[in-house]
Fold these 4 entries.
Entry 1:
Amino acid sequence: MLDIFQYGFMQNALVVSFFIAILCPCIGIFLVLRRYSMIGDALSHASLAGVAIGLLSGGSPVIGAFAFTSACGALIEFLRIYFKKFTDLLLTIILALSVGIAITIISSGRLHANADSFLFGSILTVSAFDMVSILVLSIASVAVLVLLYNQMIYIAYDEDAARIAGVRVRLINYVFSILVASAISVSIRVVGVLVLSSMIALPVATALQLRLGFRRTLLFSVLFSVVDILTGLYASYQLNVAPGGFTALVSVALLLAVMLAKRLWLLFRLRKRPRAHTDGR
């Protein structure tokens, strides 16, 4: 197994995957608790427009994805004021804007690079510059998460109470949208746009099955994410398939395995429970 990591592109992909495995569930747990997982899905599709803009301008597609997705995240937060009762419309607006831009640029024939690898993920496309960009974005995002940890937990459980308590909810929501954009932009190289939301939500969904406290749920989310991505990375290389799709399959399989193990454990405990004796017999 370790023989494949002697190649430079696999070493780059391994480093990037490790940081993705840490960052995505750290962002995802707040999205899931706030029931915003579909917003993460919408922003992951929006990143394709950022990739197209980055390729068209001759710059880094990762930086392009980060900039455009950050703008879309801020736009969602801004539009929440006008669509308080119809928040699902925000996703339609963002998808229409971003997918329209992406299709227009890609179909124009002006791109000098293939954008397909960003749809499905590719190990071969992770360059040294991309790796440095991803490391910087990941470290900065984790640092901001640590700094705003208590406030973000408060907002995740009760946004109105947090606002009454003096937490700057609006500002932190804008910052959080940038963190989501960071998690998405660092992941598109390996995971791909189409299944990126699975790496944000599924490890968290798996950890939630254990019914632990917030911190232990977060730690198990990272653990499951590492297993998902590294297994998907290795298996996709061996099977010669796109890593994004196979990683999503591994994530679903691990979720089902944990749910089955939890069910079997509950049945085992019920059988081991001593039966009540009937008095007078």
Entry 2:
Amino acid sequence: MTTLDPATPATEGPNQAQNRFVVACVALFAGAIAMGVSPVFVRFAAVDPFVSAFWRVTMALPLLWIWARIENSGRGRGRRAAPLMRRFSPLVVLAGVLFAGDLVFWHLSIHHTTIANATLLATLSPVWVVLGSRFLIRETVARGTVAGLALCIAGAALLVGAGFQVHPGRLVGDLYGVVTSLFFGSYVLVVRVLRKSMGAGEMMFLSSVVTAAVLLVVALAGGGPMWPPTLAGVVSLVSIAVFSHVGGQGLTAFALGHLPAAFSSLVIFVEALAAAITGYFVFGEDMTPLQMAGAATLILGIWVARPRRAAAAG
């Protein structure tokens, strides 16, 4: 049976469950696209990447708080939920720390190795999610998901692998890329578990409070300016918060309440694909025939990995 959002009526019928399943799939891909276009805003923010990461999460908090309040008010009759700020739990804190770690090590990887190396190594996260789904959260991983993951990894290698380089001077940066994948993969698993008892808005708001606190320490340690020098930079930061965090991460968190963690983790490949397409149209970055073949392979892999019916999401 489909895993329902905590706000979903338990008496939901098969057609309603199927519709909710389709909505979750749409939300997953929409969230990936929203995260994939974030490099556009990061380039115009004119601040240190760690500072932009901090504002990305912090500026999103008011919208996430409104989402959480609306979500809680719509739960209907029954036992009244605990006040929002009292709903912190070890898993919520862990989710916030893991996402902060994902952002920090991603930027460290970019600074210490090539973008191609950092991107390709970060796409290893679904491998950890597949293993964690099977051995940690006891969630069945379909053979189609494994086959689709293999195709996605091959597609990612074609899409960004042309610039992949093995160099002794970049090994630390490459290691940061692998660590990034571990943080993001762990984050997906924890969110999947949390979403079985929490709404997406509530989970996103509470975990983002933790993420913002961690990123503030990191940003201040960098010693750079904490505010962009231009209005365009401020608008870029607001756009990152709205599109990448509330839209991208929020929709992904919503989807994780209804879809298997292993399939949902493939969102990182859609994000890479969206980033490549955005780079082509916005910055005039070329896409070679090999990269186009990689994009097609990514799409095929996601199609092969898809849950075949709503029941597969439970």
Entry 3:
Amino acid sequence: MTTTTTRQFWILQTAVWLGYGIETYFAGLGMGRPVGYYQLAVFDALCGFVLTLVIRQGLKYSWNWPLRARLWTGGGLLIAVSVVYGYMWAIAIYHMCTECKPPPSALGYLSFFAGALYLMIAWTGGYVGIKLARQLQQEKETALQATAMAHQAQLRMLRYQLNPHFLFNTLNAISTLILDDRRDQANGMVGALSAFLRYSLDNNPEQKVTLDQEIGAIKRYLAIEQLRFGERLKVGILVTPPAGSARVPSLILQPLIENAVKYAVSKREEGGRIEIVARVDGDMLDITLRDDGPGSADYQPHSRGGAGVGLANTRERLRVLYGAWHEFTIRSPRRQGTEVHLAFPFERSSTEASTDAHTHTDRR
């Protein structure tokens, strides 16, 4: 039991029996008892205070026993304590109340025991109820913590899958440039790769970044690809206010950009154009990525190729973070080009939010 819980118990225990003693005293006065009857009320409250501590210790000792054993132990303890309580009350009432007369029959003495048993059952019910409620709350908190930890582990796994995937593609491109004796471009790509990986590794996978920061990471990646494709790669990025200050999962757009480059640019001699449009629609952040490529059946979340890994990763990250409160769709209108649409709750960054409009428009 924690220090806070122990303190709360003693405060509640003292308040309950103090209130009981006061109520007993005024009830006695109402029944015509003398003013000195307070001594009996104090004794009654002190007996209850001490004897319920005995019950408490018994309950704590047997709390983790099988239910049947706990019931037998608790029932026996209640009866034993009630017998002691009733006996002490019978003795005290004749020594502290000279006007009180003994019961005319054994039923009167039985009433002392019955009253004590009723009081002990009421106290035990309250104690057990509070303890069970606290235990249930702790179990809920433990379950929530376990779920959060599982989600964090899953997010780490999904997030860290991006770096090897991207790194393989970039190193393969650098190798190609070296084989083609394009060493200056290869050196430039190594420098851009270093900057991108520094950003990627410095960010905690569970933390979110602003969309402006995410766009900055995308630009670093595109700077690498620009060295490969030159004028064949054309990009347009439009972020309307206040979408730039929205908090988004780090590198959530990275697999989408990689796939667009792969299917819309690298496979065509004339290259292609990639566009990113982000806006706030009500309480949702709406992001659309489209290209003018040929459209491909391979560009699907569950395909066996590289595209499937990245898109399935993005879909799963959104599911873990937002549950049913997100959208992720891919379509290829008229089999010309591909459009990927993401939507999830708009969360404004407390440190990045501003009233200034930031519109990003790049032409490559």
Entry 4:
Amino acid sequence: MQIEFDRDTCIGMFQCVAEWDGFEKDMDAGKAVLKGGEETEEDVFVAEIPEGKELDAKFSARSCPVDAIAVYDDDGEQII
């Protein structure tokens, strides 16, 4: 399972940080950071969701008020 984060879309509400420790606050930029995320295109980061953290990652994606976070299953289908 993978998570994708569009940092450009992020408005810095940090609700994702409250839901999952896979995100952290970047107070200087006023945006969240996806820990261990690999930049796949400008300001878009992707990371594997660790086993056992899938539910937290899903809550994190659902909590984003601007839909900057997407979750994909192992087949590459977007589920959130």
